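Build the 3D complex.
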Amino acid sequence: MPTRVHKENASASPLVSLILLDWSVRERFHAFDWLARQDVPREQFETIWIELYDRVVPVAMDKADVVITCDQKGLYEKHAAYNVGLLHAKGQLVTVCDSDAVFPPDFISSILRSFGLAQSSEARPLVLMHHEKRTPHTYPDGLSDLADLARHPWEPIRPNLGACMTVRRADAIRFGGFDEHPSFRGYLCGPYDLGWRLVNAGIPEVWHDETVTLWHFNHPDPVSSFSQPFSMERWSQVSYPHVDHWALMAVEAFSTGRQLPLKESPQVFKLRMSLRQIGTEFEKKYAWLTGPSGFSKWQKFKLHLRLKLEPLILIRYFLVMHFLIVLKRVIGEKRYGRLRAWWHSG
Amino acid sequence: MQVNVLKRNERTTTPKVSLILLDWSCRESLHALDWLAKQDVPRDQYEVMWVELYDRVPQEVMDKADVVITCGQEGMYHKHEGYNAGLLHSRGQIITVCDSDAVFPPDFVASILRSFKLDGSGEPVPLVLMHYEQRSQSEYPNGMSDIRELRNFAWFPLWPNVGACMSIRRSDAIRFGGFDEHESYRGYLCGPYDLGWRLVNAGIPEVWHDESVTLWHFAHPNPVGAFCQPFKRKMWREVTYPHIKHHALMAVEAFSTGRMHPLQENPEIHKLRMSLRRIGTKFEEEYAWMTGVRGFTPWQRFKLHLMLPFEPLKPLYWRARSFTTMQLLKILKVVVGPEIYDKIKAWWHSVRDKKAAPNTES
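Done.
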């Protein structure tokens, strides 16, 4: 996937990196305005705008800290873009969230509190899932006060796993990032793929306080709500079977306890492998013998064959040793020493 | 594998370290138990677990170990299954897998506690602590009781023998599926490094222990365990699977591909690690236990694949089904009469409500 960075973040080290996705569909960009009104210093978080195709909207260039296009072809693949965001993120925490939500002003500060970053410089491990309220109303022009949200009817809150999640960047990398398996292509995917695998790895999952929920207005031409009547467009974006609209492979990972993605991003793989802390140089030899797909069939065949022939190899070694002992006696220690030195120099 | 616990740790204090010592009816000297009795930390801070892969249990082991387990294995031994039996029965926050015929320095357990920052209170830090082991060609001398006597023997140069001894947090061992019970680990070429390397893949730092607290290993009278010995058919027979310079092939592959899970997970460990997960909502728990360890069956997958192209017909199907059911019920009411119909309805609702009642079992 040829990514292109259109804008980079000059800020040194934000605490939170917000990954916001677009696949040439966003009709509104109000999320930037709500994120600009957070009650923490602006340098504590960065907004990373990732376009899956190639549309670059001026408002994103103006208001986002990082703008990247992925130039995907055919049906979009959100997880590959999440990984692009993850790799470019500078924050200790990465937040994947709806790029057209309304964010309460204490959204970032509540994330920092949840991860213990308000008191300590090291974030604690956590899978923090954020609630998102939904309304059938479309986004009203000129909305600028959070109190005005009360004027709209909101559906009862439910754990919408596909909406928004925050994890430590280090944990996301350690467990292979977002799964780039083709079954996640299209609409049925989301941060819960990684979130559930982190839960499998023993990281506690917590749902964020409902008082800092995100608020999501309806799209003018909705593709994203399964409570809507059947839509051919929506259906065409479902590329793989699902369980109650949760990606099949994510449910299977959760249910089998799998921790790594089925298809790992090569860059995330390289990064996580290089971040390992291996105790000795001796072991490092074994840490990089193969690529991600392991030994080839041919290599395995040779090793199997070698095992069967091991007695012969060891007998050969034994014979060579005895031949050398005899040689030493025949030609004398001095000449033998010279001969050995010559051999070793070659 | 028929695990039998012959002796349990009766101490009321929870130990900090559980030492897992394996035997496969081959240990000719049990001196390790004496060296472990001479540690410079209180005895209740660690427990000695003796795991016999077959069924031989010397009386000395029953007397000196805190926990004694037999595995009743048949055929070629499988050490990793024995390690897992120890792991599941251990009570310490740290587990140490080590040679059961080594000489342990008196500060061995204390140095483990220090490394994991457990010498005070609090939680151990995540770590893969590998222990060095010095090796000698001499056999264990009778009556040795002072660690200073080790100087009287010749020792090979120290090298990172990953198969010898390792300490990790018990919780980490469980989180990453315990020791791999894959068939390729059966026999001699296996060891704690399988799990150690997978933990390194999972981001846990590996540290080699201070050489001053190395273990000391004397040669066996009839050595199976030293590849610097000439070729022996017995030794070769205990190698069941190809290897890379005597490191188990599947462990090297896991290390090199970044794998974290065992190829064949112990079912008890799988159950335990799955139950220890902290899932945020009841709603998600529904999806956390849908399949066994093998995932969806081919038949389940086939059905889901089949359902996908028919999804556009779903709304029509539900409408048709609802309409047909209502019509059938109307006909039934006419045929059986309202009184009997109401009785059937009440019975059906009671059955349905019973099914939907929450499970109150803990």
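Chain B has a mean pLDDT of 90.
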